[in-house]
Every structure is written in structure tokens, then in C-alpha cells.
Amino acid sequence: MIHVQDLQFSYTSHPFIADINFTVPAGEIFGFLGPSGAGKTTIQKILTGLLTGFKGNVEVGGIDLRKSNRDLYERIGVDFEFPSLYEKLTGKENLKFFASLYKHHVAIDPLLESVGLINDADKKVSAYSKGMKSRLDFIKALVHDPDILFLDEPTSGLDPSNARVMKNIILQLKANGKTILLTTHNMYDATELCDRVAFIVDGKLVALDTPHNLIISHGASTVRYSYISEGEEKTITTALDKTGTDALLLQLVKENRLSTIHSSEPTLNDIFSFLTGRELQ
Ligand SMILES: Nc1ncnc2c1ncn2[C@@H]1O[C@H](COP(=O)(O)OP(=O)(O)OP(=O)(O)O)[C@@H](O)[C@H]1O
Ligand SMILES: [Mg+2]
């Protein structure tokens, strides 16, 4: 659904986005994970036709982005980083207006219902809270039932229960066959939602794989155990795959002398710092 080959782009004379290559098949949730300023929004703006003047090949839904094509906007839904809504119109009027811009649209009320805004549908957006605006902006991207969605930080600024609602809708959209490209700097969201994740740092794509593969291929799980020796608690950390040959651990197990034992798996954040030397947040 999305093909990006040798993408390069710069806002100034200084090169920024460079050598970005990836393909997103239909029905996948693909994530850009990276710290603030990495270039996630910039790449999304290129893929949605907002920034032109890039080098390389970009194809979205079979449409070559270097050729201007109105059909692209019927095919894609975009939830921008910052809500863009008409404050003087109600939530419902906003959705009706945006739906009227497309050839094809879906029923508005079920969309409002899905994000818990049906009872606020007739309130002016100026009276909405930040989280309500985020949710309205999100369903605005769905009014024309697009097959490809670009979601820029879809859960940012939402409380945990609304973030949960949003993540469930994203998973439901995937189950309905939509292709989704989202950006995040939240490793939990990336791990839970994304089939594959691209690490983005300083405009470059540093790694690309499933969250599971990124974690197992670059990080070792560890086991930490403690026991009492000569009246003092001692704590040992060992690699999970070395526990079978850890004579002390085996002896403590046999003698039933372990005080505590914990395993810990690396997180996507650990792998991100390991590969890029940078922190996500
Ligand atoms: N219109 C612009 N003109 C010049 N520079 C820009 C413009 N928009 C963004 N930049 C710069 O490009 C870099 C990447 O910005 P971008 O918005 O793509 O980052 P991001 O990864 O989405 O970050 P965040 O997580 O904070 O949203 C930043 O250094 C930013 O200052
Ligand atoms: Mg951004």
C-alpha cells in the first residue's frame, strides 16, 4: 500500500531526511518510533502530499506522489499532530462539513459514538476539552472511510481510558483491513499496536522490524536473584540463557535458599537506546 524508496528531503540547505526505504503491505499497522524532532511528522507530511520537493520515489495506494492526484485524498485519512477544527461549529457540524468534501462518506453518529462524543455532538468545538478535540480530530480522518490512515501521535494528550478507547479503535480499523501508518514516541503503544516499527533518529531510519524481533535480536533477558549469606542479602544478575549453567543459582534452588527471583525482558526503549544511543522521551 505504501512504497518509499530512497526518500530524501530537507527544509533548509542542510540535508535532513535521507535514505528512507520501506514498504507497508495492506492491512498492516506500521509505526515510526523516535524522539522529538526525529522527523516523524515530516515523513508523514511527505507521504500525505503536504510537503513536496522531496527526492526518491513515494507511492501511496498505487498513486505516485510526484504526480499531483486528487484521488489520493479520497483514499487516505490523516489525523494531524495538532487538531484542525472549526471552533464555532459543533462537533457534528465539523464532521458533516469535512465529509462533504469527499465523494464517499459514512454515517456520522456511529463515529461520534465510537469515541464517546455522541452526547457532546451538538456542542461548539470551542467548548470542547483538549482530549475531546483530539478524539473529534481522529474521527474526522474516518468520515470518508479511507483505506489508508496516517495517524500522528494518536494517543498523545489523552488520559489512559481515552487512550485505550483510541487504541481499540485503531486495532478494529486494522481488523477491518485498513492500512495504518502511525507515529509515536511511546514504546508501549508501538509494542502493542504495531506489526512493524521503524526507529527514526535525525531524519534516518535506523532499524525496522516487528517489536518482538527488535527486542529478541538485540537484547538479552536477565534474571536477578537474591539470597542470604552470612546474615547479608546478596543479589546476582545473570543472563536468562545462562541460568542452566549458573552453579550458584542451581545450588540455591536445590537448597531452597532463594529469597527473590525476577526475570526482566528488555523493552523497546532499551533496544532503541542500545541501537541509537538516544532516549525516546
Ligand atoms: N516547516 C518547517 N521548517 C523548518 N524546519 C522544520 C519545519 N517543520 C519541522 N522542522 C524541523 O524538522 C525537524 C523534525 O521535525 P518533525 O516535526 O518532523 O519531528 P517529529 O519527529 O515529528 O517530532 P515530535 O515527536 O516532536 O512531533 C525538527 O528539527 C524541526 O525543527
Ligand atoms: Mg511530530
Any descriptors?
binds adenosine-5'-triphosphate; 281 residues; single chain; alpha/beta; 6-stranded mixed beta sheet; Rossmann fold
Instruction: Identify the CATH architecture of the largest domain.
Output: 3-Layer(aba) Sandwich
Strand elements, count: 13
Look at the helices and sheets and give the structural class: alpha/beta
Q: Given this structure, which CATH class of the largest domain is correct?
A: Alpha Beta
| Helix and strand pattern | EEEHEEHEHHHEHEHEEHEEHEH
Strand content: 25-35%
Q: Main sheet: which strands, in order across?
A: 6-7-8-3-9-10
Count of DSSP H/I helices: 10
CATH superfamily (homologous) name of the largest domain: P-loop containing nucleotide triphosphate hydrolases
Shape: globular
CATH topology of the largest domain: Rossmann fold
Round the Cα radius of gyration to an integer and report it: 23 Å
